[in-house]
Known about the structure:
By secondary structure, the protein is an alpha+beta fold.
Amino acid sequence: MTLLAVAVAGRGLVDPDEPVVFADDEALIRGRAAFETLRVYAGVPFRLDSHLARLAASCGRIGVEAPDPEECRSLATLALGRATEPDGVLRFYRTAGREQTDSPGLFVLVSSLPPDLEELRARGSKLVSLLGVRAEVPWLLGGVKSTSYAVNMAAAAEARARGADDAVFVTEDGLVLEGPVTNVWWRRGSTLFTPSLDLGVLAGVTRETLLEVAPAHGYDVREGRFPLVELQGADEAFTSSSVRELMPVVELDGVRLERGEAATELQAALRSAALG
Ligand SMILES: Cc1ncc(COP(=O)(O)O)c(C=O)c1O
């Protein structure tokens, strides 16, 4: 992704090549920051209110004061006004601020979309299952979008090293969780399945959108605790995230999965929800 614009609280638009974080910001030295990533369609951020609500919830969980939503909105407007592309990725970062101070930071980035998304959607994604943590206790920060994502990035790298495109986390006792940056779905007949939030998976805004639109397309949805064998035996599977939208899964742990109509239909439904 190419960085197109940056806006910083108290400073406004900043040259994307200028540094914006102090060396002792706890975001950097301890990973204490919350963030949000959302997609911009034709200049309009999709479900901005839901993302700002999740940002506030994440801040609460890591002991950082939530940013003022109005300030977030105006920084986003500034940055989007500067970006040259109508479609892109908008990110908010709320940092804990400098060590020994209580003054959190806030900045907003606008970047271009990753260039290879449509190619991946066309060929379908290969997943490998990797051990993840059922983060049900508060200090494991399940469901929190914090910048402590090194584990998620390492899992994605491990998946690529094994010849796949992405990972799906599975608990020690074999329950499906989520991907490093996606929620996971599968279909049997006209029922869609996705792991429930009480497992500590992130409450994806795309997940929430799909839960809303799926019934109108003839699908009922079951959220719950499901073993990996259910995903392995599915009629089709896909992942969801703001940037990647719906990604059909064509392989799991080296075993082929059929493509199906739900991923295509719901991808179209997501686009129409976004484009109005
Ligand atoms: C761990 C994790 N799960 C799920 C998601 C999908 O969430 P959303 O649909 O809000 O992008 C993300 C997004 O980055 C994520 O990091």
